[in-house]
Amino acid sequence: MATKIEQKITGFEVVKPDSEKEQPNNVTAIAPLLERDDVLEGTTYKIKTPNSEHAMYITINDVVVNAGQPDAHRRPFEIFINSKNMEHFMWIVALTRITSAIFRKGGDVTFLVEELKAVFDPRGGYYKRGGKYMPSIVAEIGEVIQQHLVSIGMMEGQLSTPELEAKRLEATEKLGADAVAKGNLCDKCGAMAVIRLDNCNTCLECGDSKCG
Length: 212
Fold this sequence. Notes:
- By secondary structure, this protein is of the alpha+beta class.
- It is 27% helix and 21% strand.
- It folds into two domains: 41-156; 158-212, no CATH class.
- The strands form three sheets. Strands 1-2-3 form a three-stranded antiparallel β-sheet. Strands 6-7-8 form a three-stranded antiparallel β-sheet.
C-alpha cells in the first residue's frame, strides 16, 4: 500500500517488523560484595589430629550486616588456618582464599559444609577425641565451619556438647571404632552416625535418640 508524503523529509528511521524487534536486555542485579570493617569479631577453633604432632588453628571472622537494625545478623567474612606443620601449606592457603572469597560474595554459603565434609583422604581417616570418625582433615575443617555457622544462626543444628562427646566415647569403648564409623543414616540431621547404644538407636552427630 502506497503512502503519499505531504511534508518535507527531515530524517528517517528503519523500523523492523514486530517479530524482529530487538528485545531489551535482561539485566540481573548482582549483590555487592560484603565490605570489611576495620575491626572484626571472630572465633578460633583448634584441630588436633593423630596424624600430626602440631595442631591446626582455624579462625573465622564475621561482619555484622544491617547493624543497628531489627534484621541485623552476623555473616562469616574470612577464614584463616594456621599451623606449624608446613606439609599442607599450599592447599591450605588455596582453601582459605577460595572460602573467604565465597564468604564475601554473601548469599547461602552453607553448601560449603557438605562439600568439605564429603572429602575423603585416600590414606584413610582418623578418630578425633570423643570417638568421632573424620574421613580427612578437610572434612574436619568443614565441620568447624558448620559449628561456626550454627553458632551465629546461619545453620540449624546442635553444637557439640560434653554429653554428646561422652556418648561418642562410650560408643567407641563398647562397640569399637569400626562400628562407630559405620553408622546408619540419621532422620534428623542426615549424618551417617546412628548406632545401637544401650538398646537404643542414637545419633552421635546431633544426639537424637529414639528413647528420648
